[in-house]
Specification:
173 residues, alpha+beta, 28% strand, 7 strands, seven-stranded mixed sheet
Length: 173
Amino acid sequence: MKTFLLGLLVASALVAGTYDGYSFHKDNNDSKAKLDMFMDGDFKEIVRFDMIFFSGTEVSSDENDDRNVTRYYFDPRDYNPILQAVRAYQEKNENILIKIIGHTNESGEDGEKLSQDYAKSIQEAFIADKIDEKITVVESRGDRDMAYSDDTSSSSELSNRVMVTIYVLKTKG
């Protein structure tokens, strides 16, 4: 069983860098160019990280607005090594792109939105930590790439995750 789960995890990591048929969050005008870069890019290095799992949500009302604000919680111990790696590449003046892929165990439109929200929350953490939004791309996969079965609530919750990949572009010249 352990070997099967390890194989499943490796297979999931191998497809983490692809995006055909998946949804992207397109806030920037240069999103298409960035997406094309992932398909056609000649990378010096591709760095995939351990999954960032989400442990819960909090919905609160904004006193100045009628809308609710939802916050998604993840373990900073999962996020901080990724942030440190991004900063290390930037300190070396490397040209990088960061792909942030959200996953969930929820199906349908709700799952699509939730996985996008998970990915956006990581992007927002990067932005809060002074990482330029222009080097990030957010992708949502909903429940299409579940990491774990839905057999138990604990294994189902493990599918609520984000995968982050850094693409180091080759310098032209």
